[in-house]
Amino acid sequence: GGLRTSPNDLLDAHAGVLPVNLMLERICHTATIRAVTLPRGHPIRAMVRGYSKAPAKTHLTPLQKLIERYKIKPSRLETIMPDPRPPTYKKTFTVTIAKSKEESIKDEKEDDADIRVYTDGSGYEGSVGAAAVLYRKGITEPVKTLRFHLGSLKKHTTYEGETVGSILAVWMLQG
């Protein structure tokens, strides 16, 4: 909290709150960019593309005013398509977390996958590290192991370690 006599502008800047005019500009710009990058087949996309090619001389719509104000060229922006998979799509892999150590051991004995990858990232004794281990079917020893030391727990988090563990797993699967 601030003192009663603190200037509001200073408090807003300290709290990361934009002045109202800049906040409205950002909201309008974001909405315009979203309208311009809509996927094919969306009804608004055709309107936006038409507005940018042949702007009206009089009686501009609010969307036309925004496109003109920000000088947006739809042909220079990438449209990111929504996920094209149907609702009946089957995943190529599964993630399972056992409820107990015994259940985990039982699940492992029953697993007949050709490749299994295990990852972990954690903080221990003031440091953060990550590891990934790859096993192949029928081989009891790990085929490949990767480890990475991120550094001090003061500069890194366990979540970073977990993420690095996943990246190590992807590296192993690529190589």
Give the rounded overall mean pLDDT. 87
Shape summary? flat
Largest sheet: 3 strands, antiparallel
Helix/strand-derived class? alpha+beta
- The residue fraction in helices comes out at 40-55%
Give a written overview of the molecule:
The chain is an alpha+beta fold. The chain has two domains: 16-76, no CATH class; 101-174, no CATH class. Helices cover 41% and strands 17% of the residues. A three-stranded antiparallel β-sheet has the order 1-2-3, covered by helices on one side. Strand 2 and strand 3 form a beta hairpin. It starts with 7 loop residues before the first helix and ends with a helix. The model has no long low-confidence stretch (mean pLDDT 87).
Write a brief structural summary.
This protein has helices at residues 8-15, 20-36, 43-53, 62-70, 101-110, 158-174; strands at residues 115-124, 127-136, 144-152. It has 175 residues and is an alpha+beta fold. Strands 1-2-3 form a three-stranded antiparallel beta sheet, with helices on one face.
